[in-house]
Design goal:
The protein is an alpha+beta fold. The chain has nine helices and 18 strands. A hairpin with a 5-residue loop joins strand 2 and strand 3 (134-137). The longest helix is centred in the first third of the chain and has 29 residues, at 2-30.
Length: 326
């Protein structure tokens, strides 16, 4: 008997959650919303995934239509608040009805738009998603996302990003970079796209690296911690790096550039990614001199001071260019 009543109980529970989500949205949109209210809402959302889905669903619909404009209370009266809540509850019921009519129609209404994030030269931004996934964008990066109940897709159009992915086998997290596909298998990893060159470094977990069309198995690899894959249009090379080496390469997450016996030309190329003032090395012999040290990515002055004092190079300023020579 209890099994027969289970579906009804589940429906009642879903209706209660939907009504509570509608009330939270109405209060946040039309009442005097305080920091205490925000904290209470966050606590309610944290109680269960069902709470977050219901609130996100209504909030998505709210942002896409002007029909709720009429719900704003008049003169703050209790009657207006009751009327607006009733209308919003009907709006919630309408969403539930759409879902009942078919999953395809529901997803069409509820699916968020593709979003694009950009950072300028020297910029750094962290994006947090409701599933626990976080993406950190490095300097001069463009990245688009499409996160829905059915898929988690990211397109790295240029630049570099570090991904901390909450693994979900039913909804894999996929990064598209040019004609390459990076699929999370429970992972922390970085992706750097520089023109036709693509580099993927795995910190934790595993990553499936493959062509976007899946046509060439020779261009595919299963990457594990310490693996670094470098791909060009015609090649794929996978090497192993130590934890400390990968950590040094990810120093940008703390605003740092770490060089361990790196050629001056390579160090300059890194600095130029983060600054509008560009460094130029004048001759091939100086370009091959080695640099060792930790620098702030935005501190060109310290870097050029080291080049002058330690390497004995001459430093000349010409507008937004600094010329290093022997």
């Amino acid at each position: 008997m209890s099994e027969m009543h289970a579906p009804a109980a589940e429906k009642n529970r879903a209706a209660e959650i939907e009504a509570a989500a509608a009330e939270w949205l109405q209060r946040r949109s039309f009442w005097n919303w305080t920091a205490e209210d925000e904290a209470a809402l966050e606590a309610w959302l944290a109680q269960s995934l069902a709470h977050r889905i219901a609130f996100w669903r209504l909030n998505a619909g709210f942002s896409r239509t002007d029909r709720l404009a009429a719900l704003r209370p008049l003169q703050g009266t209790a009657e207006a608040r009751r009327g607006s809540f009733s209308a919003l509850a009907k709006f919630a019921a309408a969403f539930a009805m759409i879902a009942a009519l078919g999953l395809g129609a529901s997803l069409y209404v509820l699916q968020p738009r593709e979003r694009t994030y950009t950072t300028g030269i020297g910029g750094h931004e962290t994006i947090a998603f409701s599933d626990g996934t976080r993406i950190e964008l490095n300097t001069d990066t463009v990245l688009s996302t499409r996160m829905t109940t059915r898929e988690r897709m990211v397109w790295l159009k240029k630049g570099e990003a570090f991904f901390q992915v909450r693994h979900d086998p039913a909804h894999p997290f996929i990064v598209m970079a040019g004609n390459r596909r990076i699929t999370d298998l429970g992972t922390k990893f970085s992706v750097h796209r520089d023109g036709a060159r693509l580099e993927v470094a795995v910190v934790a977990g595993r990553v499936r690296f493959s062509p976007a069309d899946g046509a060439n198995d020779l261009q595919s690899a299963l990457l594990t911690p310490g693996d670094v894959a470098v791909a060009t249009p015609s090649s794929l090379m996978v090497t192993k790096k130590s934890t400390s080496d990968i950590a040094n390469e990810l120093g940008w997450r703390k605003g740092l550039l770490v060089f361990r016996h790196v050629a001056l030309a390579a160090a300059i190329a890194e600095f130029n990614r983060y600054n509008t003032t560009k460094l130029v090395v004048a001759d091939p012999a100086a370009a091959q001199m080695k640099i060792y040290g930790v620098f702030r990515a935005d501190n060109v002055e310290d870097f050029t001071a080291l080049a002058h004092m330690v390497l004995g190079l001459h430093v000349a300023h010409e507008g937004n260019t600094i010329l290093l020579s022997r």
